[in-house]
Amino acid sequence: MRKTNKNNFKKTLSKFTTGVTVIFAEKNGEVHGKTVNSFNSLSLNPPLILFSLGNYSSSINTFLNSKYLTVNILSQNQKKFSDHFSQKNPDTKKIKFLKGIYNTFFLPNCIGYLECKLIDKIKKGDHIIFICEVLRVKSDDKLKPLNYYNSNYIK
Ligand SMILES: Cc1cc2nc3c(=O)[nH]c(=O)nc-3n(C[C@H](O)[C@H](O)[C@H](O)COP(=O)(O)O)c2cc1C
After folding, report:
1. Given this model, what pLDDT does residue 18 score?
2. What's the domain range around 47?
3. Is the beta carbon of 65 within 6 A of some atom in ligand 1?
4. Which of 15, 25, 49, 155 pairs as cysteine with 66 (C-beta 3.0–4.6 A)?
């Protein structure tokens, strides 16, 4: 074992395989999306999920001030969305969003969807943990997930 530093901490975390999500918040009619793999389940009863965003993120205020969020779990064929929404201020004008019932937006053809109400925010270190109640869900049994391991997408 070695004393933790930024490099060995990030490298060790990269050995944990995750799925990839894009999470959307809405502000003044504009959709803001972020690629996020810190998404996880939190509670079954009530149904809660969590994820964390860097407090340095260009979209942090939009997420902090939003009431509803959507989690879009990407399928194997959606790497382009992961790359797109990990950029700063990604353009959303050309995307044909599906609409939810809380002025919420979804990407087409995802393997899973959660329509959520933001209920808590906890600041820890350089990130903020967002806790959401899950109001509506949808999933697809035929699609395969996009996975992320060792800082790369894997099939
Ligand atoms: C696969 C993947 C997963 C990511 N997961 C997170 C995450 O959980 N939390 C986070 O703050 N940023 C995450 N990022 C980085 C953000 O998508 C984004 O690049 C970063 O917040 C900087 O852009 P911004 O300042 O516009 O937010 C991830 C990026 C990739 C490619």
Report:
1. 98
2. 20-154
3. no
4. 25
- DSSP letter assigned to residue 17: -
Residue 95 lies in a domain: yes
Domain total of the chain: 1
Q: Closest Cα to residue 96, out of 86, 87, 105? A: 105
Per the CB < 8 A criterion, the answer to whether 74 and 112 are in contact is: no
C-beta of 37 in contact with ligand 1 (< 6 A): yes
How much distance in Å is there from the Cα of 98 to the middle of ligand 1?
23
- Tell me the whole-structure pTM to 2 decimals: 0.97
Give a yes or no: residue 107 inside a domain. yes
Residue matched to tokens 């992320």? 148
- Does the residue 36 lie in any domain? yes
Mean pLDDT by 10 residues, the chain (155 residues): 97 98 93 97 98 96 97 98 95 94 97 98 98 98 98 92
